[in-house]
Amino acid sequence: MSNVSRSVCVTTSNRSDSNGSYNGAFGPRFFLISLLTACAPYQTQPPDIDLERVHRSGAHRLAFDPAGKRLASGGFHGEVRVWSVEDGAAITTLSGHQDAVRGLAWLDDEHLISADRSGRILLRQLSSARVVSSVQLVAVSNMALSPDHSWLLVTGGTRLYKLALSSLQTLAQRDVGSRLLSVAVSHGTGRVALSSRDGDWWKKPQSTWAR
Questions:
Q1: What distance in Å separates the CA atoms of residue 65 and residue 85, rounded to the nearest whole number?
Q2: pLDDT attached to residue 120
Q3: pLDDT at 100
Q4: Shortest CA distance to 120 belongs to which of 149, 95, 92, 98?
Q5: Does the residue 159 lie in any domain?
Q6: What's the alpha-carbon Rg for the chain, to the nearest Å?
Q7: Contact 112, 106 (CB under 8 A)
């Protein structure tokens, strides 16, 4: 395992292959660290909580709730779990995905969005575990919420999708001609950044991407 005192932000053990059969960058253990001095090789505060075996083959996505009191994690085999930040207790486990989780985001304190590699996206109410809405795309590699949480950008294959919240209906989509890996939306300017497998990345107003 990496030495926590010399870690960069969140650290875990060993490496993973493309099939997730080894403990990877988000291996079966993750840490909750309350204060980080910087991403630099010097002493940082030890983790408040050290959770082992949170997911088989590791937690591939993590997301704090708006209040920072709960942490959602998504596994390689599709399970989504929610944890207490205060003591690390498991709050709930959600089923519904059969493939690696590729996106996690809190719409609000009660609703969690999850997406898996096969393209299945679910919006669930946590108190009841009820699926509020769902959609099936061709694939999902990443996703990002808009600043006002009224829409969601999703990358899958070479396509960028803009989905309405909370219905998950497709508002627009665009083929960028290159396999997309990740997407981010600026909450300050509304601009969108995309990266692709061929090493390119772009940033533009969101209105020029998904229409």
A1: 10
A2: 98
A3: 94
A4: 98
A5: yes
A6: 17
A7: yes
Q: In angstroms, rounded to a whole number, what is the distance separating the alpha carbons of residues 186 and 4?
A: 31
Residue 91 domain flag: no
In whole angstroms, what is the distance from residue 180 CA to residue 135 CA?
Answer: 19
**Three-class SS of residue 177?**
coil
Task: For residues 202 and 178, give the distance between their C-alpha atoms in angstroms, rounded to a whole number.
Answer: 12
In a domain, 177, yes or no: yes
Q: What are phi and psi for residue 206, nearest 5 degrees?
A: -60, -30
Range of the domain at 192: 137-211
Check which CATH number belongs to the domain holding 172 and give it.
Answer: 2.110.10.10
> 16 falls in which pLDDT band (50, 70, 90)?
very low
Q: What is the pLDDT of residues 139-159, one digit of tens each?
A: 999 999 999 999 999 999 999
Residue 172 within a domain:
yes
CB within 8 Å of 190: residues ≥ 6 apart: 146, 147, 205, 206
For strands 30-32 and 49-51, give the pairing: antiparallel
Q: How many domains does the chain have?
A: 1
Residue 209, H or E segment: helix 206-209
Asked if the model's pLDDT at residue 96 lies above 80, the reply is yes
